[in-house]
Amino acid sequence: MKAKVNEELCVGCELCVNTCPEVFEMQDGKAIVKADPVPQEAEENCKKSKEDCPVEAIELE
Hints:
The protein is an alpha+beta fold and 61 residues long. 25% of the residues lie in helices and 23% in strands. The longest helix is centred in the C-terminal third of the chain and has 10 residues, at 43-52.
């Protein structure tokens, strides 16, 4: 699985970083993906981050 953050949509709420710190981190006030591909043990939390993102800025492949 691969994760991607749309920086134009991201509002920097840090929800994804708090839910899945294995994959997401903050940089310049926006979330970025630090693990590509997503580690298998982090896939469920990554999916939850996508579902919970208030601006739908996270895409999963």
